[in-house]
Amino acid sequence: MKFEEYAQEANLLLKEVADELGNPQDTDHAYRVMKSVFHTMRDILSPQESLHLLSQLPMAIKGVYVDSWKINESKRIRSMPEFLEALRAKNAPSAARDFGSDETAIQHTRCVLNVIKRHVATGEVQHMIDQFPTELIPLWLSEEKAIH
User: Fold this and answer.
1) Displacement of CA 125 from its chain's centroid (Å)
2) Is the Cβ–Cβ distance between 57 and 119 less than 8 Å?
3) What is the DSSP string of the chain?
4) Interval 79-102: pLDDT, tens
5) HSE-up of residue 148 (Cα within 13 Å, Cβ side)
6) Residue 88 CB partners (closer than 8 Å, separation 6+)
7) 3-147 classified as CATH 3.30.565.10
């Protein structure tokens, strides 16, 4: 088995999320944020699109994405308020600390999506963006591009 290799790949991606969040040493925070964003994305993407994303993630990170997933449940997020509410609900014990203000929640989501964009094929990223409601597409843009 390649468990050590899987763990190393997952730790590198998690470290990358921590770097994006601006606190390279706090991988616990990075894990909570990434997991919440992943679990909220499941409420936007079709199961098929989620499976395409999964095919490009490191093995151990796939486990984070699918943890407690009920693939046949259909909860479609359509707006930014719904997204922010779901993001916090999926991180209830630490939501205030990890996603305090709406601006922080949006910024932290962008950090995770930036890492995804670096690890997933451009075409696949575009397919995910295409499934996001128009109001949520700016989450995929860098902060500077989203403001202008």
Assistant:
1) 12
2) yes
3) --HHHHHHHHHHHHHHHHHHHT-TT-HHHHHHHHHHHHHHHTTTS-HHHHHHHHTTS-HHHHHHHHTT--TT------SHHHHHHHHHHTTGGGHHHHH-SHHHHHHHHHHHHHHHHHHS-HHHHHHHHHHS-GGGGGGGS-HHHHH-
4) 999 999 999 999 999 999 999 999
5) 3
6) 36, 95, 99, 105
7) no
Specify whether the CB–CB gap between 37 and 112 falls below 8 A.
yes
Residues 91, 98: contact at Cβ < 8 Å?
Answer: yes
What are the residue boundaries of the structural domains of the chain, listed by start? 3-147
Q: What is the pTM of this model?
A: 0.92
Distance CA 67, CA 126 (A): 24
Determine the angle formed by the axes of helices 27-41 and 80-89, rounding to 10 degrees.
130
C-alpha 31/C-alpha 37 separation (Å) is: 10
Dihedral, CA of residue 61, residue 118, residue 15 and residue 3, to nearest 10: 40
4-8, 55-59, 61-65, 138-142: least confident range:
4-8
